[in-house]
Design a protein that fits this description.
Blueprint: H1 7-18, E1 23-27, H2 34-39, H3 42-45, E2 48-52, H4 58-68, H5 82-86
Length: 93
């Protein structure tokens, strides 16, 4: 899943893990786990494979998909509103 560490992505990822579906998070390097820790336990998070990557780099995304044998993608990555772009790691978001 791209954008798994965002608001909607956190809930979708939780649902996948709760259902026993293998899940990967493809998000920008250094992205905060703040939101996802609000909805998932450490045990549930341990079942997620986190991959650092930038959705704008198509070659890197394709390599990650091939390397991990990923066959389905939920794309929740998106452009960020100005205040988020200005301070993407803010804990207030």
């Amino acid at each position: 899943m791209t954008g798994a560490l965002g608001f909607i992505g956190s809930w979708v990822l939780k649902r996948l893990v709760d259902e026993g579906t293998p899940a990967w998070s493809y998000d920008r390097p250094g992205a905060s786990l703040h939101r996802i820790r609000l909805v998932m336990t450490d045990e549930a998070l341990a079942r997620v494979q986190f991959i650092d990557g930038d959705i704008r780099d198509g070659d890197a995304l394709e390599s990650a998909l091939v390397e991990h044998g990923i066959t389905h993608v939920i794309n929740l990555a998106g452009l960020q509103v100005p205040f988020v772009k200005a301070d993407p790691c803010s804990e207030r978001l």
